[in-house]
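In this supplementary section we document a worked example of the pipeline. Step one takes a protein sequence of length 260 as its only input; no multiple sequence alignment statistics are reported here. Step two produces a three-dimensional model, which step three serialises into structure tokens for compact storage. The input and output of this example are shown verbatim.
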Amino acid sequence: MARTALLNVMVNAVRKVARSLVRDFGEVENLQIARKGPQDFVTSSDLRIEANLIELLQEARPGYGILAEEAGETIGTDKTHRWIIDPIDGTTNFMHANPQFCISLALERDGIIHAAVVYNPITDELFEAEHNRGSFLNDHKLHLSGRNNIADCLIASGQGEFQVDAASYYRRLSRAQNRSHGVRISGSSVLDLAYLAAGRLDCFWDNGLKAWDMAAGILLIKEAGGQVCDLDGGEFDLSSGRIAATNTTLMPAFIELLKI
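The serialised model returned by step three reads:
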């Protein structure tokens, strides 16, 4: 695929910072780890990857705002653009040498996600999308699965809702498991959304996510022909933390399944 100048900036930055992440992955027992909250950790790799990525992006696009998981928000002189960064989505997996994690980078333009890159440096899978230009995995165009029956679907969820409302989470989890082909909880919501865009999963839901847990993934899904909603089927709001995603045919049945 022919990349725009913007996507070249994003892909080059992500690939460059990923080199040290691969080295860290082979030496996870030596990482410095701090606890941010219950079941919420940050490694020295998170901090370094994020700082290096911010530096590269600021060099390429001075003035853009930044919303990053570890550094928080920086208001730029350019009020129309904002980078949304998760240096390691799936930090717990990374800490346990489980290769299910990624670097996630999205660009928001005038409040709309315009471009996205999701990269798993261990599997060397690079997902990318740009508004009205499609979604791709290692240069191959992506499409959601064409399944139209929940019973045939592989459904994924994160565990954000467990922290928000454990009772609701378990009710939805039980219904999804009983009515579908199965449920998977990978520990990386961004990768789950990317896998949905690639047809490896059929549906995804969660509640309590942060913007950086979803931003890149929702553009991948939309550009692959999918739909993203609130958990009750209403309009998706990146700041709400609530998400239901699948193909357009399945969405009504999926929203019905998620009702509690």
